Amino acid sequence: MAVAAPRIAALAGQLLGIPLPVRVRAWDGSEAGPPGGPVLVLRHRRALRRVLFRPGELGLARAWVAGELDVEGDLYAVLDKLLAPLQDRAPADARQKLAAARELLALAGPQLPLPPPPPPEEIGRRQGPLHSLRRDRAAISHHYDVGNPFYELVLGPSMVYSCAVWGGGAEDLQAAQTAKLDLICRKLGLREGQRLLDVGCGWGSMVLHAARHYGVHAVGITLSAEQAAYARERVAKEGLEDRVEIRVQDYRETSDGPFDAISSIGMAEHVGAARYREYAERLHGLLRPAGRLLNHQISRPPVADENGYRVDPFIDAYVFPDGELAPVGRTVSLLEEAGFEVRDTESLREHYALTLRQWVRNLEANWPEAVRLTSPGRARVWRLYMAASALSFERARIGIHQVLAVRTTSTGGSGLPLRPRAWTEPA
Predict the structure, then answer these.
(1) What is the DSSP letter of 322?
(2) Among 85, 162, 153, which residue's Cα sits nearest to residue 383?
(3) Which ranges of 132-224 would DSSP assign to H, the alpha helix?
(4) Do 244 and 350 fall within a single domain?
(5) Residue 345 is part of which domain span?
(6) Which part of the chain is the Polyketide synthase-like methyltransferase domain (predicted)?
(7) Per-residue pLDDT tens for 182-196?
(8) Residue 212, helix vs strand vs coil
(9) In 3D, which of 45, 47, 49, 4 has the Cα closest to residue 25?
(10) Contact assessment for residue 187 and residue 197, using Cβ atoms and an 8 Å cutoff
(11) From 26, 383, 408, 411, which residue has the greatest number of CB atoms within 10 Å?
């Protein structure tokens, strides 16, 4: 008799403190939960053990990556219904929770190992102090060196892995990414012959756009060898070797300033709270007086106890090892402490949600090829993290800001126009 799903739904409700908000189908074919809508599918008993031994997002994520847990129907709807209860679980009687966990463990089967080993896509043991040069290189490699063809499937022709800017005629991903790159160039006030440093240059899209359309001499730095090789090929193909240089280099190793402008797009999340002041000071030192910095960075709301802030365990284990998010107010304060004058801050939160949903569509439309290029588990990691991130931006759980800062001259000059918001309209 197929009875697993009703017991799972009842016991999970006891653990969460509320009725399970989604329908469940178990490995024995039984179903339980709210009728209609998407279904959370437990394909293997092992999924229960993963959740019991790592309650919350990481246990569910491990089961998802391993293919033991799946969703039939709208993935966004399931995530939206599950994430809030997991993050804000109602209090429940400790004895009741222990009894529910024991019964779920029995359902999972005594013959399975305790606990199941993590899927191989999870990052292994990390070596060296947090945010040391060696450890940062390994963390960046884990995320970015999974194959340029895979990123081409997800990102599309722009090969830009950060929030696009939609509207104003930019109605597809390629146009929206071009609009973002051009907005940054205008905020930086780029002109013919200037020197631009792009920190965390990715596959070279920013430096290529700035050199091609604004005539700058650009240096792009990245810790990913695969990104650097791809970017150099693009530079050579466009005949811009005399204007664009790509380096495998850490921002802490860059010393050939001054630059007229610096862009840092989707890179500062990797810096870490302990290193952020150093990051800001180094970039300040690399700019000439009146030079501008455009810092494009994901943010999070402040919490009552900042010392108790913890990185999302799934993101840390599978997506961005050692990545950290900070409130935008802290970012602004640290930039100012490093000597910058912050002149403009713009939120693009809704734009990132739209961008992520387009990346998910690209991944799903090319699913067999994405699996072939990486692994089933790696493709599932990307689908889950991008879909969950889209919801987090839509629900204002996280945000993203472009912060424009300037290194003022000794007399306080900024080089900025009196009404800098004119950059919101293309020239």
Answers:
(1) T
(2) 153
(3) 133-144, 148-155, 173-188, 205-214
(4) yes
(5) 133-424
(6) 150-408
(7) 999 999 999 999 999
(8) helix
(9) 4
(10) no
(11) 26
